[in-house]
From TrEMBL, chain A:
This is Inner membrane amino-acid ABC transporter permease protein YhdY. It is found in: Cell inner membrane; Cell membrane. GO terms for biological process: amino acid transport. The chain crosses the membrane at residues 41-66, 110-129, 183-204, 224-250, 262-286, 298-318, 355-380, 400-420. The gene is yhdY. Pfam families: BPD_transp_1. Gene3D superfamilies: MetI-like (1.10.3720.10). Signal peptide: none annotated. It comes from the Bacteria. PROSITE patterns: ABC_TM1 (PS50928). GO terms for cellular component: ATP-binding cassette (ABC) transporter complex. GO terms for molecular function: transmembrane transporter activity. Keywords: Cell membrane, Membrane, Transmembrane, Transmembrane helix, Transport. It is a multi-pass membrane protein.
Automatic annotation (TrEMBL), chain B:
Belongs to the ABC transporter superfamily. It comes from Aquimixticola soesokkakensis. The lineage of its organism: Bacteria, Pseudomonadati, Pseudomonadota, Alphaproteobacteria, Rhodobacterales. This is Glutamine transport ATP-binding protein GlnQ. CDD domains: ABC_HisP_GlnQ. Residues 21-255 form the ABC transporter domain. One of its GO terms (molecular function) is ATP binding. PANTHER family: AMINO ACID IMPORT ATP-BINDING PROTEIN, PHOSPHONATES IMPORT ATP-BINDING PROTEIN PHNC. Coiled coil: none annotated.
C-alpha cells in the first residue's frame, strides 16, 4: 500500500476546531407527512385506518351540527323546521342554558353567581401564577367568605362573625405562642375559635344585624344546581382536600404510632368505600346521628364527604412523592438545624408535591367529575337537570344535544386543569434549561 | 513510597485547649448489630481530624452521631459544652453550630444556589434576607463560584455542587465542620478543587472532622488521623507517625491496600 506511511499513530492537534452552528432542519408539509404518517408499512396501514375511521364516524356528524336548529320552543317544532333533514335541536340549549349553569337560582339574583365566578378567577390567579402581585392573595383570603355570602345570601354579619372566629383564634395563637411551647398555642387558638363559634358568634351576629341590618336575600341550598353546584363542590373539595391530604400523608409515615394508626385507618376506610355510599350517608344517615335540633346544610355535608374522599386518595399520591425523595434531603435539612415543620414546608413538600403533580391533578379531575354523583341524593347538577328537562313534554326525546353540551363543559374544565398542570411541571423543572 | 513533608498550618498548635467535641464510651447498635463500640474521642477546638478505615467500619455512623443524624444508645457525646440527649432544644442548638457535608452533596434541587445558602440562616437564625444574601455571596466567593449563584444545583458539576454544599454549611457560621467522604463521588479532576477549599478552611482554624480516603489531604492538614475498624478506634496518631509507623496489623494492611500499588 502506498499510503501506509501516511497513517501514523502519533497525532497532535495544532488548531482547535471552532464551534459552529448546528445543521439546519429540513422543513415542509411533505417531509412532515413522510416522517410521521408514511414512514413504514405499519405506519401507512395505521394512517389509512385512521382516515377510514374519521370518515365513517365523524364526517356524518357534520350535517348534524351544521343544520342544527337554535330557535324553537319544542322538539316537535325543531323537527318541523328540519323537515326530514338530519340536524341537532340545539334550541333546548338556547332555552335552558341559564338553568344548566345556575340551577334554580332566582333569575333576579344571577349577578351573584356571576360575580362569584369572576372572583374565583381572581382568587385562583395568584395561587396558580407566582409572578402576579402578592397583594391579590387578599382576594383569595376573603374569597371563601365572600363566596358563601354571595351564593347563600343572608345577613353579612353571619359570615363576618365566622371569619372573626379565625381572626380571634389566630390572635390567641400568637399570644400563647410567646409564652407557651409545642402544640399548646395551636390548641389555645383552636379552643378560642371554637368557643366563639359555638357560643358567642350567634348572639353577636344577631345583635349586629339588629343594629346595622345589611344582607342579601337568602337562597336555599335546594335552589342551587347545575354547573354552579359542581363548581362550588369541586372548588371547595379541591381547596380543602389538598392540605388534609398532606397532613394524612405525613401522618401515615410518622413515627408516632397513634397518629400513624389513625391516618392509616382513615385512609384505608375511605378508600374502601365508594363515594356514592358516603354521599348517601351525608344525605340520609347523618340526620339520625346528629342531635335533633342541629341542622347541617346538605351542600355543606356533601362538601365534607367529597373532601374526605378525595383527601384519602391525595394522601396516597403525596406519600408516593415523599417516598421518591432521597433520604439525603431530610438529612441535609436536619443537619442545617431546620425543625421538622420548617423542613417539611421549605424542603420536603415543595419537592414531594412537584413529583406528585400528575397524580394530584388526576385526583382533582376525578373529584370534579364525581361531583355529578350528587344527582343521586337529590341535588340537581347538570345531569340531574338534563334528566328533568327531558321529562318536560316540550323536550321529550331530546338526548345528544344536552349531553354533548354537558360533556363539553366538563371537558373544558378538566382539560384546563390538565394543561395547567403540564405547564406547571415544565416551569418547575430545575435540572436543565 | 516517598515521604512528602509539607508545611503544616501552625494555628492548631497554638489554639486554646478548649474542647469542641468529647465522646465518652459511646456505643451504638443497629437492631442487634453493634456498629460502634466504646468510642472515646476528644477533639480540641481548631483541631483537624481525619478518620479513615475500611468500608463498613462505622466512620459515617460515628460522625453522624455528633450532630444526631444517628442516635447513640449509651455513653456521652458533648458538643461545644452541650450534651446530646433526646432534648430537641439541645439537638437543634448543636445542629446549628455544626456544619456537615455529605458524599452526595444533598443540595436542595428546587432552590437556587443562593437560596440554598440563605435558607437556614433566614429560617433557623432569623437573619434578614439582605444580610443572609450578603453572607451567602461572601462564602460563595470564598469557594470560588459567586457567578453561579442564580443557577440551580442540577446545572452545576459535582465539584461545584460540593463547594456550594460547603458554602451552605459555612453560612450558618458553624464552629465545627463534619465531612463524610466529600470527594468520593467526584471525578479525579474535581477532587482537587474541593480539597483546596477544605485546606483553606483548615488553615483558617476551623475544627474539622473528615472521613476521607484522601491520604494526601490527611498528611497536609490533619493534626491527627484516626483509624477505625469494626466499629472501634484501632489506632490514632499524628499523620507522619500514622503513615510511616503504623502500629497495628490492621492499620498496616489497610495502608498497604490504599497506598500500596
Ligand atoms: N441504617 C442502618 N441500618 C442497619 N445497619 C446499618 C445502617 N447504616 C449502616 N449500617 C451498617 O453499619 C455499619 C457501619 O456503617 P457506616 O456507614 O458507618 O460505615 P462506613 O465506615 O461509613 O463505610 P463506608 O466507607 O462504606 O461509607 C455497616 O456495616 C453498615 O452495613
Ligand atoms: Mg460512610
Amino acid at each position: 500500500m502506498s499510503n501506509l506511511d501516511a497513517e501514523t499513530v502519533q497525532f497532535v492537534r495544532e488548531t482547535m476546531i471552532p464551534p459552529s452552528a448546528p445543521p439546519g432542519r429540513e422543513t415542509g408539509a411533505v417531509k412532515w407527512m413522510r416522517e410521521n404518517l408514511f414512514s413504514s408499512w405499519f405506519n401507512v396501514i395505521m394512517t389509512l385506518l385512521a382516515i377510514w375511521f374519521i370518515w365513517h364516524f365523524f364526517v356524518p356528524m357534520i350535517p348534524w351540527f351544521v343544520n342544527g336548529v337554535w330557535n324553537a320552543d319544542s322538539l316537535r317544532e325543531c323537527r318541523e323546521i328540519l323537515d326530514g333533514r338530519t340536524g341537532g335541536c340545539f334550541a333546548v340549549l338556547s332555552e335552558r342554558w341559564k338553568q344548566l349553569l345556575f340551577g334554580f337560582y332566582p333569575q333576579t339574583e344571577y349577578w351573584r353567581p356571576i360575580l362569584m365566578f369572576i372572583w374565583l378567577a381572581v382568587a385562583a390567579a395568584p395561587i396558580m401564577f407566582d409572578n402576579l402581585p402578592r397583594k391579590l392573595l387578599i382576594a383569595t383570603a376573603i374569597y371563601p367568605f365572600a363566596m358563601v355570602w354571595l351564593i347563600w345570601g343572608g345577613s353579612i354579619w353571619g359570615v363576618l362573625s365566622v371569619a372573626a372566629g379565625f381572626g380571634l383564634g389566630y390572635v390567641a395563637f400568637k399570644f400563647a405562642d410567646r409564652k407557651l411551647e409545642g402544640l399548646i398555642p395551636l390548641l389555645v387558638g383552636l379552643a378560642v375559635a371554637v368557643v366563639w363559634w359555638l357560643f358567642l358568634r350567634g348572639p353577636v351576629a344577631g345583635g349586629l344585624q339588629s343594629i346595622l341590618p345589611f344582607g342579601l336575600p337568602s337562597v336555599g341550598s335546594r335552589e342551587l344546581g347545575g354547573f354552579l353546584i359542581c363548581l362550588i363542590i369541586g372548588v371547595s373539595g379541591i381547596a380543602l382536600s389538598l392540605p388534609i391530604g398532606i397532613i394524612l400523608a405525613l401522618g401515615r409515615i410518622s413515627n408516632l404510632p397513634l397518629v400513624k394508626m389513625i391516618c392509616v385507618g382513615f385512609i384505608e376506610f375511605i378508600r374502601g368505600v365508594p363515594l356514592i355510599t358516603l354521599l348517601f350517608v351525608a344525605s340520609l344517615l347523618l340526620n339520625y346521628f346528629l342531635p335533633p335540633k342541629v341542622t347541617f346544610d346538605l351542600v355543606l355535608r356533601v362538601i365534607v364527604m367529597v373532601t374526605l374522599f378525595s383527601s384519602a386518595y391525595l394522601a396516597e399520591v403525596i406519600r408516593g412523592g415523599l417516598a421518591a425523595l432521597p433520604k439525603g434531603q431530610y438529612e441535609a435539612a436536619d443537619a442545617l438545624g431546620l425543625s421538622y415543620w420548617q423542613a417539611q414546608r421549605l424542603i420536603i413538600m415543595p419537592q414531594a408535591l412537584k413529583i406528585s403533580i400528575p397524580g394530584i391533578v388526576n385526583s382533582f379531575i376525578g373529584l370534579f367529575m364525581d361531583t355529578s354523583l350528587v344527582m343521586f341524593i337529590g341535588i340537581f347538577d347538570m345531569l340531574g337537570l338534563a334528566k328533568a328537562i327531558r321529562a318536560n313534554t316540550a323536550w321529550i326525546g331530546i338526548y345528544w344535544e344536552l349531553y354533548i353540551f354537558i360533556g363539553l363543559v366538563f371537558w373544558v374544565c378538566c382539560f384546563g386543569m390538565s394543561q395547567y398542570s403540564q405547564w406547571l411541571e415544565r416551569k418547575l423543572r430545575t435540572d436543565h434549561h | 513510597m516517598t515521604v512528602v513533608t509539607e508545611a503544616k498550618p501552625t494555628s492548631a498548635k497554638s489554639a486554646s485547649d478548649e474542647i469542641a467535641v468529647e465522646i465518652i464510651n459511646m456505643n451504638k447498635w443497629y437492631g442487634t448489630f453493634h456498629v460502634l463500640r466504646d468510642i472515646d474521642l476528644t477533639v480540641r477546638r481548631g483541631e483537624r481530624i481525619v478518620i479513615a478505615g475500611p468500608s463498613g467500619s462505622g466512620k459515617s455512623t460515628m460522625i453522624r452521631c455528633i450532630n444526631r443524624l444517628e442516635e447513640h444508645q449509651s455513653g456521652k457525646i458533648i458538643v461545644d459544652g452541650t450534651e446530646l440527649t433526646s432534648d430537641l432544644k439541645n439537638i437543634d442548638k448543636i445542629r446549628s453550630e455544626v456544619g456537615m457535608c455529605f458524599q452526595h452533596f444533598n443540595l436542595f434541587p428546587h432552590l437556587t444556589i443562593l437560596e440554598n445558602c440563605t435558607l437556614a440562616p433566614m429560617h433557623v437564625r432569623g437573619i434578614p434576607k439582605k444580610e443572609a444574601e450578603a453572607t451567602a455571596m461572601h462564602f460563595l466567593e470564598k469557594v470560588k463560584i459567586p457567578d453561579q449563584a442564580l443557577k440551580y444545583p442540577g446545572m452545576l458539576s459535582g465539584g461545584q455542587q460540593q463547594r456550594v454544599a460547603i458554602a451552605r454549611s459555612l453560612c450558618m457560621r458553624p464552629r465545627i465542620m463534619l465531612f463524610d467522604e466529600p470527594t468520593s463521588a467526584l471525578d479525579p479532576e474535581m477532587i482537587k478543587e474541593v480539597l483546596d477549599t477544605m485546606v483553606e478552611l483548615a488553615e483558617e482554624g476551623m475544627t474539622m472532622l473528615c472521613v476521607t480516603h484522601e491520604m494526601g489531604f490527611a498528611r497536609q492538614v490533619a493534626d491527627r488521623v484516626i483509624f477505625m475498624d469494626q466499629g472501634q478506634i484501632v489506632e490514632q496518631n499524628e499523620p507522619e507517625e500514622f503513615f510511616n509507623n503504623p502500629r497495628s496489623e490492621r492499620t498496616k494492611l489497610f495502608l498497604s491496600q490504599i497506598l500500596g500499588h
